Amino acid sequence: MHRSVQVTNAVFLRTRLSRWVVSACWLACGFGVSSVAMAQGAANAKADQSTQVQTQFAPGVVTVIPPAPDPKETFDGPLTLQTMIDAHPEISWQTGNHPEGRPHFDPRSRTLEEMAKQVILRREIFCLEFSFKPLRQIYLDIPRPDGRLQRKLVHYMVYRVRYRGGDLRPAADNPNTPVYKRIESISYNTKRFFPMFVLEDHESGKKFTDQILPTAMQRIAIREQISTRLYNSVDISSIKIPRTEDDDSPGVWGVATWVDIDPNIDFLSVNVFGLTNAFEQDGEGADAPYRRKALMLNFYRPGDSMDQTADRVRFGVPAFDDPAEQAYVLKKYGLNERLDYRWVFR
Hints:
By secondary structure, this protein is of the alpha+beta class. The protein has a domain of 212 residues. The protein has 6 helices and 20 strands. The strands form 5 sheets. Strands 1, 2, 5, 6, 7, 13 and 15 form a 7-stranded mixed sheet that branches. Strands 11, 12, 16, 17, 18, 19 and 20 form a 7-stranded antiparallel sheet that branches. A hairpin with a 6-residue loop joins β1 and β2. α1 runs antiparallel to α2. The chain starts with 18 loop residues before the first helix and ends with a strand. Keywords: Signal. It comes from Neorhodopirellula pilleata.
């Protein structure tokens, strides 16, 4: 990476004001933010629905990502259930006195084999609200397999999940229609969160799944001044998250931790799985990979391998005045435009 290029200061400011307001204020004050950065900020403000708020149980500012269920995620199809067709050849009407597999009176489309080629699967979709504190680093003594302690740099992210209700499901007004045209909103008393956090290094292409570090929990809780219980990625799955409409509700707090991250990392993302049950699958079987919906949070770390705990990991994709540099950075994140976060299927 060319470190001589200066990143515009506007990308580093995180307030509850939208980026175009911040950029305009800086320009008015004479700080010289480019018109390119201002235009990018105005476009991103429309797509960015996140907010930043102060929290009581973990002093500091958290970034809140609102739930984003999509009505299109409530059904799949039409699909061909080829596995069922192959397992039950008797439904093909190739036996007896049925020429070309046709029934005597009903149309061919009424046979089980043909109906199994036009199946629409319906399901309910939920999505949790996700809030997080800045991604930080800390040196900790981590137990090794031989029982000894090894000092390592730990990347961690403290987060909060809340269930706001508003689940989506197809409304069965007419069960005989192939597609339910109306989507209704429902809510339950509680939901559970079965998380997996994957840190992605866009420089090397390596991915790191969060690790359970029992010895790190107390140190991180003290450093972040957490006044409620802090759960790891396993323990939090046993907690029922109550539905709430109160913006000041405490929610459930957890922490994700990673070790052995490249100290020279610059561009990285954290993929959060488990916030929703939405998924994609093209067909069925081994040739149709199952992709889960995840929240991708993009981060930027300007710094080097020296004194890493002093380096600030910034949320969002950095903005550059040079179009070539901006295109280079966007390519690293796999983006066409600057987005601090997005929902992806992986």
